[in-house]
Specification:
eight-stranded mixed barrel; rod-shaped
């Protein structure tokens, strides 16, 4: 797989892709769990506040009923109404005491009887409800006072804060808290009353306002760590999410590392520019000078290292990838070698192997023209070597193509001559300039007389046809001397130099220039 210009099959990118695949569902899942947990806290807080408001309204409903029932007693003196007032309070749930109010203030209380207390109507919310820090009976014990006005005065009932604490505690969410607000006074679950704005919980605070009374309840959560609380309530889900993400990451790691189709791998390698040129020197047999080089393709695989051409060239030809691969190779050689062309001898041979499929359209003509345009006229001789792995049909198109290439100065060579059935056919149908004697015959020189006879016949054929002869695979001095004596023009093989990277070949040209000439001994040392 090739993503965004990098090879995802490399161990580092493979690991990065696996980590990204692991982190993506974990991040999304944890974010969703976190958001859902916060929504759950909000819902629980709202339900708790609603429940507390309903309980408060229930208690105040009883207190309001008591006030309404004792309104007829306001016209009577306290001694006449005291027993009836006390009985009514005794029978009413949640009400701690009830007082009667006339124009002079509070004059009768269900617990103390005759009293003379001030009635501060303005301190009540909506002149109706008030949270008191205490009263004349218990100075520092908060109570909730409900005042109901009538034509003759008012009735005032109080609810003890103990009841309020219980109702808030029953309503508060788990690990949360609730607070009652009346006007500017706040009462929490511990019965503490605060004037002004108190500290509210940090999470999920929800306010619910009573529809019948001027009070509201705030509920929320005070958690030391949201993530810690989330782990406590969702640890199984989190563990399942981590296991699922790990399985997906391992699957991606395996998929990126498994063997892929050769065609897909070749396309990936082409995009990654992993096909690199290696140049093997071409030696003039009489002078020993380096007069050219054959460009060979190597695959610099990121994990397998340098791959030999016989392991991928046939597959590239089968799947049609050989044409773009050769084009990229020609461009790379032209760009790099043109920068040091002043060190090349005039008529320096540069040869490329091409397949039959490369000759099916005129793109080869444009590529050759582009290659030669990088060099000064006469500096290099471009040679195209035809292989016999694919049969090239001599139709009108191919004949016209090679004619135009010949007019451009591009030379044609038959590679591995003598090993296939199409060599003689090519000689008959195309204008061939070079014959390259296959290494299988050269390797038997000096050890097998039959091979020497075949070489002699090939040399004789090439000489009669006026072709330039090139011997491949020369590895010994005996072979070189024999070929030189037979008039072979150029020699190529490990005796003179191994295929080497383009950059190294150019550096060798620089060293050769310093010595005054490019000679075979230099190529051998390279």
């Amino acid at each position: 797989m090739f993503l965004f210009g990098f090879d995802a099959a490399r161990p580092c990118w493979r690991l990065l892709c696996a980590l990204l695949v692991f982190m993506l569902p974990v991040s999304v899942g944890m974010w969703e769990l976190h958001s859902n947990y916060l929504r759950t806290l909000d819902n629980e807080a709202e339900l708790a506040a609603t429940k507390a408001v309903r309980l408060m309204e229930g208690m105040l409903h009883h207190a309001e009923g008591t006030n309404i029932s004792v309104e007829p007693l306001i016209k009577q003196p306290c001694k006449a109404s005291f027993l009836a007032l006390r009985k009514r309070v005794t029978l009413t749930p949640f009400v701690r005491s009830t007082s009667l109010i006339n124009h002079r203030g509070v004059y009768c209380n269900s617990l103390l009887g005759d009293v003379h207390w001030e009635d501060d109507v303005e301190s009540y919310s909506d002149s109706f409800l008030r949270l008191l820090p205490g009263n004349q009976i218990r100075a520092h014990h908060p109570v909730l006072a409900l005042r109901t006005a009538s034509q003759d005065g008012a009735a005032l009932s109080t609810i003890d804060s103990e009841y309020l604490k219980v109702m808030l505690a029953l309503s508060a969410p788990v690990s949360g808290e609730a607070q009652l607000r009346v006007g500017n006074a706040w009462l929490d679950e511990q019965g503490r009353l605060v004037e002004g704005y108190p500290r509210l919980p940090s999470l999920g605070v929800r306010k619910v306002q009573s529809e019948h009374y001027p009070l509201s309840v705030y509920a929320g959560f005070e958690l030391p760590s949201v993530w810690g609380a989330l782990w406590q309530v969702r640890h199984l889900t989190i563990m399942m999410l981590l296991v699922f993400s790990l399985c997906i990451a391992l699957l991606v790691w395996w998929l990126l590392g498994r063997p892929r189709s050769m065609e897909g791998e070749l396309k990936r390698a082409l995009r990654a520019k992993e096909f690199v040129p290696y140049l093997q020197p071409l030696i003039a047999s009489r002078s020993g000078k380096v007069m050219g080089a054959e460009v060979l393709m190597r695959w610099q695989h990121p994990s397998s290292g340098l791959i030999r051409p016989d392991l991928f060239i046939p597959q590239a030809e089968e799947c049609g990838m050989i044409v773009p691969m050769t084009s990229v190779l020609m461009q790379a050689v032209a760009l790099r070698l043109s920068s040091c062309q002043d060190r090349l001898p005039a008529g320096f041979h540069i040869s490329f192997n091409i397949s039959a499929v490369h000759c099916l359209d005129l793109s080869l003509l444009d590529e050759c023209r582009s290659f030669l345009d990088h060099f000064s006229p006469g500096r290099v001789v471009l040679v195209l070597e035809l292989t016999e792995r694919e049969l090239l049909v001599a139709n009108a198109h191919t004949l016209a193509l090679f004619k135009r290439l010949d007019e451009m100065g591009v030379k044609l060579a038959i590679d591995d001559f003598g090993t296939g059935h199409s060599s003689l056919t090519y000689l008959q149908q195309f204008h061939v300039d070079y014959l390259k004697i296959d290494r299988s015959f050269i390797g038997r020189i000096g050890t097998e007389s039959l091979s020497e006879h075949i070489v002699d016949n090939v040399i004789d054929l090439g000489t009669r046809l006026g072709l330039t002869l090139v011997a491949e695979g020369v590895e010994t001095e005996v072979q070189a001397d024999y070929l030189w004596s037979k008039g072979v023009h150029y020699l190529q093989g490990y005796l003179f130099g191994c295929p080497q990277p383009l950059r190294q070949f150019c550096q060798g040209l620089t060293a050769g220039e310093a010595d005054g000439q490019l000679v075979a001994s230099h190529a051998t040392s390279a």
